Amino acid sequence: MQDTTVTEATPADATADAAAQPAPDRTPDVWDCLIVGGGPAGLTAAIYLARFHRRALVVDKGEGRMQMIPVSHNHAGYPDGVAGVALLDRMREQARQYGATLRTGEVVGLHRDGDGFRAETHDGAVRARTVLLATGVVNHRPPLDEAQHADAVARGLLRYCPICDAFEQTGKRIGVLGGDTHGLAEALFLRSYSRDITLLGLASVALTPDEQAQADAAGIRVVTTPVSSFDFGDEVRLTLDDGSTVVLDTLYAGLGSTTRNDLGRALGTDLCENQCFLTDDQQRTNVPGIYAAGDAVEGLDQISYAMGTAARAAVAIHNDLRDRDGQTLAE
Question: Is residue 173 within a helix (H) or strand (E), and if so which, with residue range?
């Protein structure tokens, strides 16, 4: 006969059981982690933290670079490619499924608040025990209006990431807009995909003799006359200051980028060359309780790299909070 004896739960058992349950579906007074930025890094961290039963809040302006990606062919698991917007939508759905909270908005201020932090947003103040800065970077764009820029990117005529999509440009006429050392470095990287590489600039291209020698040795055409206008039709047609034109199949903007680091800078986080956040091997910055992941840290600007740093940050955040709460093995 089946034993139907019921054992009364002790208070300790009830406490342990409650601690093992997901956080209630409500807005807490203090979040375990505020994640600033809802790109691949921020959303990966949100998924991990939610599955750790942590109260995670993502605040995102909706200006991340991933949503500009027409199709990514080098993201593992998508042999036919995946659009940036589609991948973001799936990651948001997954984060919400496990209990993360996602808000559209902007964190405009971040301050120490006791042993945690207070963030100012357009929707009011948010308090959190830890903060993950997954703020990304902003590409420096050619002088195009928003509609023309969006159309050129969507049709693959204007590009920003040779590592991501240069394979699809193999053998084509490729231009690099960036008449300095950074631009030449990008042109040299692209040389393994095509013999037809042209380096141009918004101002006069002036390479050093050594840089010009390297360009010549690689067979890179250097156009010294500045580009004055852009026409993205069936192909890329650039008009130069002297009235001549350069016709290409695609144009890479090699104009550099700026890291969104204002929130961390205000708290005193260390930066690499005044740009990317410096972290330890667990994505901790030098400011206790502040972590950074994704393109905002030094490394490859790649979806997979962003996700990897975010996973590492989320585990560190969870374990550091466990340690603060006395839930780790004493050494």
Answer: none
Q: What is the pLDDT of residues 248-286, one digit of tens each?
A: 999 999 999 999 999 999 999 999 999 999 999 999 999
Contact 161, 189 (CB under 8 A): no
Select 141-253's CATH number: 1.20.1740.10, 3.90.1150.10, 3.50.50.60, 1.10.150.130. Answer: 3.50.50.60
Predicted TM-score (pTM) of this structure: 0.90
Q: Give the tens place of pLDDT for each residue, 64-93.
A: 999 999 999 999 999 999 999 999 999 999
Instruction: Kindly list the distances between the CA atom of residue 61 and the CA atoms of 108, 113, 126, 138, in Å, as whole numbers in the listed order.
Output: 11, 24, 16, 13
Distances 165 to 186, 252, 284, 300 between C-alpha atoms, Å: 13, 10, 31, 14
How buried is residue 240: exposed, middle or buried, by Cβ count under 10 Å (0-12/13-18/19+)? Answer: middle
Which fold is adopted by the domain 29-138+257-324?
FAD/NAD(P)-binding domain (3.50.50)
